[in-house]
DNA sequence: TCTGGGGTCCTAGGACCC
DNA sequence: TCTGGGGTCCTAGGACCC
């Protein structure tokens, strides 16, 4: 039986949600109606466009570009900061509303959901449900969504991306040719800025060109990714809506430093703060890791990373930090000027799947216990309550974000 | 005050083993 | 002495997504 899929995508999510929040607080101007963007913090050297209004888009502003460039394009642009805690609340409210329609729902990102409606349609049509959802979200939550209606996830996602805002679009099998094949290749999901020029060089400019291209030739040139893009161009996607919230495969935190750093000692201090954040999140999932990865970005935007394996899995701040420090020393070249530092842990397992390792430091167990106790205090009194000695100065550098 | 942060998956090449 | 070759694990880096 054919699947009945909806893809719900919030229009200009961060900007819309900020607009709704401001209106609630008595603001007269709806920032959705003026040239405006949500931007990162320029004083922290994170000044990029995170979301834009339609008016800002008309000026040629795009997500990801610098606020500096955005202002050049639109001198009267209004820039507002983001509020992730609030965004999570709005995201939750949307998810709650959508959950009334089906249990088979996948939270694809903070502002996108896939709904498998196959078993939940009764006498109504998929399209009617889409219109109902669209209307209810607008009336009850105050922001608009685009909804894609199709028989698989890929086509639903492509459909929700057609014209915006506040639209419902279908993309059924018999509409692929008329609605999708005429689109430029860059509009296809999973075709990024590196692949598009390569296809152009092969004379493939539209999604239709790719769909009609020789499958084996595409596979030969692009490997596995080639097969995927050829299938997508033909509207083929067998993937299921993933209802259950999957455990993460890895957890990482990174920070663009407010000022470039060119010595190991200062980097180590930041690394410790990152280790505390990363392992705190790891323990919250009741998981352990045994791969540690340290990333550096130089002032010239050159990225370099080193990873290493532990002989056992752990969530201990001390153990992870100790390995991370070792990796940092391998990665950092003396005197080099660093813009960003990041720490990730990978190869995660559930805490209860842990095997006893002969390599494990007995101290590790005690450390994990200590960490747990500290976590409980953090949960009770707030993340900032517990601080390691000598960490206060780092606090001003690494702003602890929503955890 | 020009370029975020959090993820997933894939690939190429080296080490190592038989 | 004419330098195999398959399999696995590991690492660094890249491409893509929101």
Helix-strand layout with pairing:
Elements: E1 5-10, H1 13-24, E2 36-39, E3 49-52, H2 54-58, H3 67-73, E4 78-81, H4 84-98, E5 105-109, E6 112-116, H5 126-141, E7 145-150, H6 153-160, E8 168-170, H7 176-180, H8 195-201, H9 207-212, H10 215-233, E9 250-261, H11 264-284, E10 287-298, E11 303-314, H12 317-331, E12 338-346, E13 349-350, H13 362-381, H14 392-395
Parallel strand pairs: 2-4, 7-8
Antiparallel strand pairs: 1-6, 1-7, 2-3, 5-6, 9-12, 10-11, 10-12, 10-13
The structure holds a DNA duplex (18 and 18 nucleotides).
Could you provide a short overview of the structure?
This protein is an alpha+beta fold and 403 residues long. Helices cover 40% and strands 21% of the residues.
How would you describe the overall organization of this protein?
The protein is of the alpha+beta class and 403 residues long. 40% of the residues lie in helices and 21% in strands. The strands form 3 sheets. A 5-stranded mixed sheet has the order 5-6-1-7-8. The relative contact order is 0.09. It binds a DNA duplex (18 and 18 nucleotides) through helix 3, helix 10, strand 9, strand 11 and strand 12.
